[in-house]
Design a protein that fits this description.
This protein is an all-alpha fold. The protein has one domain. The chain has 6 helices and no strands. It starts with a helix and ends with a helix.
Length: 123
């Protein structure tokens, strides 16, 4: 399944539109580009929220090269800064598109499991 099927295209588009308003206030054009590239990579299924850091790092490096090509060689920030903003934005994406109910159910089961372990060992 791709990201739009998992999280819903409407939810992703709504979160992206709201986030674009915030991204416009970023200090540098390179930061804006990095954050927008993270959203585009998520929408195009190049990045998944459960990917490892190494695979996300590879995509971020490719997006850095792509953004340099789009801007004739200079975007105003270095590759490590670009990758840092890219990772930061994937965390924002995770918070914006992940369903709150899923998080609640996960923590509820975690709490029940902890209580069960406590009941087994300490009663």
């Amino acid at each position: 399944m791709n990201n739009t099927e998992i999280y819903g295209i409407e939810k992703i588009n709504k979160a992206y539109r709201l986030r674009l308003q915030e991204i416009e206030s970023c200090h540098t054009s390179g930061e804006r580009m990095s954050r927008i590239m993270a959203w585009n990579a998520f929408i195009n299924d190049q990045v998944r929220l459960d990917d490892t850091n190494s695979s996300t790092d590879k995509v971020a490096s490719l997006k850095y090269m792509e953004s340099i090509e789009l801007n004739d060689g200079d975007i105003g920030i270095s590759e490590p800064e670009f990758i840092n903003y890219f990772f930061d934005e994937t965390c924002v994406i995770n918070k914006r598109v992940t369903q709150k109910k899923v998080k609640f159910v996960f923590y509820l089961f975690l709490a029940l499991a902890a209580y069960g372990i406590y009941a087994i060992f300490f009663k």
